[in-house]
Amino acid sequence: MAKLNLIAGEWVSGSSEIENRNPANPEDIVGIYTRGTASDVNDAVSAAAVAFPDWADASPQFRADILDRAGQIILSRHTEIGRILSREEGKTLAEAMGETIRAGHLFKFFAGEALRLAGDSIASIRSGVDVEVTREPLGVVGLITPWNFPIAIPAWKTAPALAYGNTVVLKPAEQTPACAHIMAEILHEAGCPPGVFNLVMGPGSVIGDAMVNHPNVAAISFTGSEGVGQRIADGCARLRKKVQLEMGGKNPMVVMGDADLDVAVPACINGAFYSTGQRCTASSRLIVEANIHDTFVERMQTAMNDLVLGNPLDSTTQIGPVVSEGQLRNNMGYVELAQSEGAEIVGGKHLDQPGFFQSPALFLNATNSMRSSREEIFGPCASVIKADGFEHALALANDTNFGLSSGICTTSLRHARNFKRSSEAGMVMVNLPTAGVDYHVPFGGRKGSSFGSREQGRYAVEFYTSLKTAYTFAG
Q1: pLDDT tens, position by position, 344-370
Q2: What angle do CA 35, 39, 44 make, to 5 degrees?
Q3: Residue 208 has pLDDT above 80, yes or no
């Protein structure tokens, strides 16, 4: 039986159904999920609009208790949910369980934030006048999430939206509906009132467009590709909706000649290839000082050869499959492109076995001007680019249309300090992979990577609330 949409507290079928298949074993059907319509979006938005006044006026403790219960249920079921996540997305079981635990922590963190929502009392310049600044929820918020973090990203958008008194319509990626559906079941179980949280599954061209164009949706938070993000931004601007966009990166990891390669190589392996490179924060450009380039490449190749690719449910597996056949074709197209541009390819083979497996790839002798060094691939591929020194490496790192995450491996405090100050990225890592961030701190970038206020942590309040300034004349 197909898993259904959640609208106004009821499970509702859509117009058709889609099979959710395991990318490591396409014969394994994870589940069958309904596909909604624009009419379902309209029903969900209407339900959310009806539920909004009571939810916005509810006690912060009431909202906090529901979010805390949801987080606790997720944590108590993390092994079960992690296995489903691994089957539907291809992430290793360890990574999948870690992501699920993060989702639980996100709900519990924002349960606390519901109680910490504060304002300001400001002395007026006029005698007898009081000034108060408060935050209020926006209304109905549309959330559009990607396939690469199928429970963490729905959680880090849903939890703050609900904590601050908004009601929600969530559209998860069509490739990975299972975890979002489980999250909807858990919120339902945790006591979320009807209409406060609604789930509508289906293609972005139908569900996402209907959400963006609906007059009663006050704001859209989107994570996905740059092209889709631009269309959403255009639609929201036309209707004057608040919009938040996270759209990927081409993240640099600088490896200086003074770096400890016992630190740098594992950081680059993790950043470039873990989660099969399917992270917007992945290290897709390895910018290496020329005097250690050959040694670094040799160490990277040795480490790559030791990586275990296979069934993500196997505890020994380090790299799972690509999420889909279409994504695999995209990756292999970039391998061919890099070779045609003059790069020497190490790895990057389509493995002849069931599932959508690709070995990690290094593009050696790459330059920063190659398309393969400038466009986001979203797979286990990394360009290796030589730098003459720190200033050259910094210039290469910043020479990109993106600006999400960046990193440097160095034992020089001066280099680390200057890189943190001068890197044109929203997040900077020193002697750590570019991927991997805490759930209680802000997430987001600059340039083509992000638009709008930051996600996660206490900074999420900037997007999910509106400021109100109130004056009172006391006489």
Answers
A1: 999 999 998 999 999 999 999 999 999
A2: 85
A3: yes
Q: Is the domain of 76 the same as that of 90?
A: yes
Residues with Cβ within 8 Å of 114's Cβ and at least 6 positions away in sequence, in order, are 60, 61, 63, 64, 67, 163, 164
Catalytically annotated residues: 246, 280
> Given this model, what pLDDT does residue 475 score?
75
> Is 474's pLDDT higher than 90?
no
- Amino acid symbol at 242: K
Structural domain includes residue 99:
yes
User: 273 lies in which domain range?
Assistant: 251-430
Whole-angstrom distance, CA of residue 332 vs CA of residue 346: 13
The domain that holds 237 is classified in CATH as 3.40.605.10
Distance between CA atoms of residues 276 and 272, nearest Å? 8
* Distance of alpha carbon 136 from the chain centroid: 26
307: in domain:
yes
Q: Is the pTM of this model over 0.90?
A: yes
Q: Count structural domains, the chain.
A: 2
Give tens-digit pLDDT for 19-38.
Answer: 999 999 999 999 999 999 99
Spatial CA neighbour of 359 closest among 312, 314, 307, 313: 307
Residues 163, 209 within the same domain: yes
Residue 225 near residue 378 (C-beta atoms within 8 A): no
Question: What pLDDT is attached to residue 406?
Answer: 98
The CATH number of residue 340's host domain is 3.40.309.10
By the 8 A CB rule, do 361 and 347 touch? yes
Single-letter residue type at 283: S
Mean local confidence (pLDDT), 412-441: 97
Please list the alpha-helical segments (H only) found in 93-244. Answer: 93-116, 152-163, 178-189, 209-213, 226-239
Element holding 132 (H helix, E strand)? strand 129-137
